[in-house]
User: What shape does this take?
Amino acid sequence: SEFENIIQASCDVVMTSQKTIPVLNTLTYGGKQKMIQPFMLNVTPLMKDGKCIGVVGHGKKLEIYSMYHSENNIQPDSLTFGKPTDLFTDREFDIVFFALQSLSAKDIARKLSITYRTVQSRLHIIYQKIGINSLSQLKEYCRGKGYDNYAPTRFINTNPYIPLV
Assistant: This one.
């Protein structure tokens, strides 16, 4: 595959460090109608007798272009990198981005290498800033503002396989 070296390098990092790394992987499919589907993966060392003998990955499809768009007959805009508003700090927008992908606060904490309580605290601040009380309201608010078509700038990379460490 054309990305074999990139993938192998990430596997080597996991095997050497013996630590799980998060990866944003974007696949293109669909023949003439090129569709882009991002996945969040955790690449984990496979251990036997205290030695790393390989890696295993577990992923979740990110729903940047969600069922909301098709159910409401709305054509999603293209994914834009950056922060759509100055209302949120960079870290808050990172949390919003992952919350829109339906990641739990614990999963968001792991992805961002922060504590679960920090995520909960930041979500509370985000809710206060926009006058809401729940994740479902956050999703509705972000869809209404078009924020669901944005991704944090730190995800910009020309490679379709991005280690997030």
